[in-house]
Amino acid sequence: MQGFPPPEERIIRFTDDDYFAGDKLKWTVCHFRELMPTAGVRAGTEGARDLPYALDPSIDEVTFQPTGGSEAMTWEEAFDVNHTDGLLVLHRGRVVYERYAGCLDETTLHGVMSVTKSITGLIGETLVAEGTLDEQAQVGELVPELADSAFGDATLRQVLEMTTALDYSEDYADPEADVWTYARAGSPLPPPPDYEGPRSYFAFLETVEKAGEHGEAFGYRTINSDALGWIISRATGQRRRRLAGRAGLVATRCRAGSLLHSGLNRHPFAGGGFNATLRDLGRLGQLILDEGRLDGEQVLPADAIARIRQGGDRAAFAKAGFSGLDGWSYRGMWWVSHDNHGAFAARGVHGQTIWIDPTAEMVIVRLASHPVAANAANDPTSLPAYRALADYLMDQEQ
Amino acid sequence: MQGFPPPEERIIRFTDDDYFAGDKLKWTVCHFRELMPTAGVRAGTEGARDLPYALDPSIDEVTFQPTGGSEAMTWEEAFDVNHTDGLLVLHRGRVVYERYAGCLDETTLHGVMSVTKSITGLIGETLVAEGTLDEQAQVGELVPELADSAFGDATLRQVLEMTTALDYSEDYADPEADVWTYARAGSPLPPPPDYEGPRSYFAFLETVEKAGEHGEAFGYRTINSDALGWIISRATGQRRRRLAGRAGLVATRCRAGSLLHSGLNRHPFAGGGFNATLRDLGRLGQLILDEGRLDGEQVLPADAIARIRQGGDRAAFAKAGFSGLDGWSYRGMWWVSHDNHGAFAARGVHGQTIWIDPTAEMVIVRLASHPVAANAANDPTSLPAYRALADYLMDQEQ
Predict the structure, then answer these.
(1) B261 CB near a chain A CB, below 8 Å?
(2) CA A339, CA A320: separation in Å to the nearest integer?
(3) How far apart are CA B353 and CA B281, in angstroms?
(4) Fewer Cβ atoms within 10 Å of its own Cβ: the N or the C terminal residue of chain B?
(5) Residue B298 pLDDT more than 90?
(6) Is residue B159 part of a domain?
(7) Is B143 inside any structural domain?
(8) Residues 6 or more apart in contact with residue B363 via CB below 8 angstroms
């Protein structure tokens, strides 16, 4: 065994510019904790709640028509095409499909990227449903430090639907985009010698200026999720790490997870920092499909989930011009398809997904390391596959 | 709740020079993971094995005579004097004392500092006892990359007893000491622009030069533990993270732990990086006291523990001049007192201790944040207290 230590050219460091690109991406998605500071997400001292199994090997043969493509494709072929690291399907609460590849196995935590937003949003909707937070309250009332920022006169509901009007660019392809200033603010690495900007995500949020009017257009901006994280912390006196329990992660007795650092000790990155196992995300998805009930107990308020499922402003959503998501909306930081199955999803770059189809009683969790960040690259070989599987599973019931 | 985010002067960052000093130390000992990269130590999917309890509140009244002091002190008083964060005592396998303070509670991982060396050493002695490693083999044979370094012609036994002759200073008070060069090599932070030195602990180890003859004197140098870690990895094909299971951490069904990064992905810091809960360290201590048996199963070879307990070369140890440890020795990276109880210990800076007294059938685990790094500062109010408690517990049996 001469494999350790690896040769210099095979070493991956957080300080490398390309740690989350190319071949390194495929390692990094499973190893965030080994690259940067994290906070643990506790799952209590009990072991994980076992998932019931009823595996169906025929699923690999399910065929679907990729969007815009002429050749039909099988479920199995799509696994590789989408650079999948892990894929779990629950039908009526039982695991019918489970497969791993790349860096992932059943106990490995994988970065879920912006699926984190949906967990933060679920907590936000829970607090609204319980009456702890008023969705019509202005952010400046909830967090006085944000009163003079663009968030100040936005409502909590606008934050939850990302219809805030912010002078902030999240175009990752533009090196001058605000998202990079934001990344520098939250970095745990030392700032450049002449750096005088904000030293945490929270300090950055206070500097964001308004551009236009709130409530008119959907704009997918991560800083809304971190503003929501701050609102939640202030309203409850708890940090998000504990609040993960509220999102059912403890209630479903997950193994555990981890959350990336926000640039401030003890406060993880609500917009994209969560890491979890495939099965734990399946447990969470099932809890949501079951309208918050677990073993007869109402762990999350059903109304919080109903609020998400009803969807947001479709006209406002359309203005953002998301390719392939015509007719969709965004609500409580979940993507709502408004299809005739009422399917809705948590989505993160490079192919991370929790797909919940209430009509088919199906939950799909996919963790992936697609080389293209935007999900527009994998949606054509994913969304029709999910629907084909839903139809297959519903046929099986008959 | 205006406590979050904290004001700038209360923020602790890994990039601060003083993150492990002064008041910050008391927070940092419980939050290493939130400051720097770590690797998880898995404990399997089962819950933790419950420890049986038989708490004895009278222990707080046990009195002892501090070394060199005139005033007697109670066990309870010593708790505060030693800046204790957590203190657990097992007697005949049952918890008779448990107390937390500061940043610690029963589920929090605390940095154990050089207690990590003893866990690495226990794995090394296990591999020797099982015949996987020959203690008389030269390090250069075991890890060819180290053949031209000072370690090359040292035996594994000399590494395990830290009687290697290394041109390496570990005087933390000297800013020019080699230990700081070593720290820079393993740092996950970006190197200075003009830095051309080693970029991992392992690359550093290859550069260490010899000073004197191996086997003549004990020299407490962390790099021996990291060399041992490398030897273990090479011999077994496993990284230390999995090997923690071999040290009984999995077998005793601990919650979990974490290990700091070594500057190389996937390879944690064997010389001081482990973090664990107080109870998990108690489980480990009890497993060692029980000569490697757990529930009738021989989890660790009894011979590995016997090798540690027999102690090392006391004359070689004496040459290092450790104040207050006259007559002690160091073996398998454990501190052996050679007292008439046969007590031996794992020890880490700022007061971390696993103290095992086979005669009293007692295990003490203490986690602490004493402002003075060297244990010479707390030994006078610790070592006599341990003995007094052993005597008290033995009296109770009669």
Answers:
(1) yes
(2) 19
(3) 9
(4) C
(5) no
(6) no
(7) no
(8) B88, B89, B90, B282, B285, B286, B288, B289, B354, B355, B356, B357
Cα–Cα dist A218/A312, whole Å: 10
Taking the model in full, what pTM does it have?
0.88
- Cβ atoms A328, A335 nearer than 8 A: yes
Distance CA B96, CA A151 (A): 54
Burial class (CB in 10 A: 0-12, 13-18, 19+), B125: buried
Q: Cβ B8–A46 below 8 Å, yes or no?
A: no
Judging contacts by C-beta atoms under 8 Å, the chain A residues touching residue B261 are: 34
Contact B345, B353 (CB under 8 A): yes
Torsion from C-alpha of B51, B57, B61, B62, nearest 10 degrees: -30
CB B282 within 8 A of CB B52: no
* C-beta separation of B352 from B119 below 8 A: no
Show the tokens assigned to B83: 């800046």
Mean pLDDT of the region B155-168: 98
Residue-level pLDDT at A2 = 46
Tokens representing residue B15 in the block = 């990039």
Q: Does residue B94 sit in helix, strand or coil?
A: strand
Contacts of A178 (CB under 8 A, 6+ apart): A167, A168, A169, A170
Residue A357 inside a domain? The answer is yes
Residues 267-296 of B with CB under 8 A from A: 267
Average pLDDT, chain B: 89
Place of tokens 């500092």: B113
3-state secondary structure at position B124: helix
User: Does the beta-carbon distance from A4 to B188 stay under 8 Å?
Assistant: no
Tell me whether residue A138 is in a domain.
Answer: no
8-state DSSP, B380: G
Would you call A51 an interface residue with chain B, using a CB distance cutoff of 8 Å?
A: no
Asked if the Cβ–Cβ distance from B8 to A199 is below 8 Å, we say: yes
Number of domains in chain A: 1
Helix segments in A145-297, DSSP class H: 156-161, 178-186, 201-205, 223-236, 240-243, 278-289
Which of B194, B265, B277, B279 is the mutation pick for testing A, counting most A CBs within 10 A?
B265
Joined together, the tokens standing for residue B371 give 């402002």
For residue B143, how far is the Cα from the chain centroid?
A: 24
Domain residues for the domain of B251 are 8-115+126-131+241-397
Q: Is B335 helix (H, G, I), strand (E, B) or coil?
A: strand
Alpha carbon distance B79, A398 (integer Å): 68
Q: With b meaning 16 or more CB within 10 Å and e meaning fewer, what string describes A273-284?
A: bbbbbbbbbbbb
Chain A residues within 8 A of B31 when measuring between CB atoms = 265-266
List Cα–Cα distances, A61 to A70, A184, A385, A392, in angstroms.
Answer: 18, 46, 11, 10
Nearest partner of B247 among B197, B285, B204, judged by Cα: B285
State the virtual CA torsion across A249, A252, A253, A257 in degrees, nearest 10. Answer: -20
pLDDT 10s digits, B25-66: 999 999 888 888 888 776 644 456 788 999 999 999 999 999
Binned at pLDDT 50, 70 and 90, residue A254 comes out as very low
**DSSP state for residue B333 in the 8-state scheme:** T
d(CA A292, CA A309): 13
Whether the ipTM is more than 0.85: the answer is no
Query: Quick one: angle between helices B278-289 and B115-130, nearest 10?
Result: 30
